[in-house]
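Problem 12. The chain below contains 179 residues. Write out its predicted structure in token notation.
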Amino acid sequence: MQHDAITPTDRPAQADATAQAAAIAAQFRYYTDNRLLDFRYTLTNHSAEPLAVFDRGSLGRTLDAVGPTGKVARPSISIDNGDVTLSFETTVGDGARLLALELAPKGRVQVEAWEPLPGSETIKRVRVCVPVAPMRAGRFEGGIDTRDGLVRIATDAPNLNLVCSAWVNIAEGASDWTD
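Solution.
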């Protein structure tokens, strides 16, 4: 996909954040002409137990998540005074069938996606937030192999921890990924 990028710099827009069992590192590219935000995050499981990563949506809403690509759901987008939060925070309601990627102990998953940003407000900072929970026996069923790993269905509403990257000043070096 071709876009008119902002002027490249020698510093990529990136951030790292660590929670108890998981760490998230994020990078962003923002195209001002069409308000398109490319993002990449890497989530690492630091625990000795499997981790459920709830970025795949819910059954019935995001059926492509259980297909061979294992796509993530579309995040909600919140813009507050130029600060953008991309959040995969789930809505747990009656009969919710949340999908979670099973992330092995010490494992990592890398996700790349893009979102058009609504409105016309100038974007200053960006972060991404992903809910996680321990992968407890008896709380998940099924499993479909995807390129990222096994996607499972939560049988009840788990206690989720929201892992967010640090804020990234999108105006400073938001043009190139670093590997």
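Discussion. The radius of gyration is 16 Å. Students who got a different answer should revisit the alignment rule from Section 12.3.
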